[in-house]
Amino acid sequence: KEYGELINLKEKDFNQKLLDDIKSCGFGGNLAPVLAAILSINSKKLDKPFHLQLLAESGSGKSFTIDTAIKFFPEEQVHIMEASTPATFIYDETDISKKALYVKEIDSVPQGDSSIASALRNAMSEGILKYQTTVEDDNKGRRIVDNFREVKSVLTTGTRTPEIQTSTRLLLMDVDYSTDQIKINMQLQALRFAGYNQNKNPDVWKLFFEALDLKNPDDIEVEIPFAHKLYAAITNDKSYMDVRWNRDFPSLMAAIQSSAILHHRYREKVSDFPNLKLVATLDDYQFVRDSLWRSFQVSQKQGVNESQMRILEKIKELNDQKVDVTQSSLAEKMSVTQAYISKEVKKLKRFIEITNKPDDRRTKYLSVDLLPDSIMLPTRKEVEKAKLHSESEII
């Protein structure tokens, strides 16, 4: 009965039920990381899924976040690797060719040229977990054997950003461990200990994803007709593009495709014989933006206190008003000493650009383009209104 009600909901109510059921699992506060993990797991239906790492210090709730997302899928759709040691990769013979792979704590994966790090990188880029083992041969003694295992989407957690070869294949997302989130986590724990909170098992979603697998067991094609406009909205008026976009743009596309699959009952289907394609909409982009915005931040707010945020906000405000900002004028505007501003500007140098004018080489001018926690993803309206840089960009 509940499944019948689920598949007959309007899209807005469908999304709300998903949020409500995440809360019913005992997860509170910012639900975006759980949605992100659900999208990553669901992207296993794609030929090119996206891989996600939740990044935060120990005890911040990374594992609980992914554990909550996993509850929404049938057990046979997600394989959990409890430890990321070489022995685990070698001796775990589970068929993961159509499953999402959850590797706990990527920090323990040997880095550099290690065979396991190479195997995991290859799994994320080529869909093949490739590694070598040594076996005993009666005739030839010991010999090295190449092992190949197909793998779909990969999820993991860690306390630090992995090395560059690995991080270029992952969409990194920090887990919110602000004071407000910590209070919410403590409140939920207190309710559980007091016996007031009964965690729900979202069985109806297991049915939903099981039915999706039965209906579409193989790779699903999804067309994103607005992809070129999204590209234009991201790159318009930007003289500098961070290299991270080489990694993150394909992941963004895969996340949008995953959302279209999640919302397949509301999406147009076009026949491209013998295949059937889903057509993603801007609703999918909005869903992804709401879910993955922390993966597309200019910088994280951790380490920036409220008084420092006020300084950055004041500089940004004055810049937007086309007012020249110096340390002395900023101190005057904020009614603080110039020495205090000078000290804080040094601490905030990763956010503040300091320049000189050609005719005034001695005076230092301050500017802030984007505040901490600014989202690099354009809004839905910006995508709708985006114009291509030139006609040659339309193929």
Can you give a write-up of this model?
The chain is α/β, with parallel strands linked by helices. It has 16 helices and 12 strands. A 5-stranded parallel β-sheet has the order 2-3-6-1-7. A 3-stranded mixed β-sheet has the order 8-10-9, with helices on one face. The protein has a two-stranded antiparallel ribbon with strand order 4-5. Helix 3 crosses helix 11.
Which keywords apply here?
alpha/beta, three-stranded mixed beta sheet, 395 residues
Sheet with the most strands: spatial strand order: 2-3-6-1-7
How far is it from the N-terminal to the C-terminal residue, by CA? 47 Å
Give the helix/strand class.
Answer: alpha/beta
Strand composition percent: 15-25%
Uncertain parts: none
**Biggest β-sheet: count, sense, barrel?**
5 strands, parallel
- How are helices and strands ordered from N to C? HHHEHEHEHEEEHEHHEHHEEHHHHEEH
Number of helices: 16
Radius of gyration, rounded? 24 Å
Number of strands: 12
Helix content: 40-55%
Shape: globular
Mean pLDDT: 83
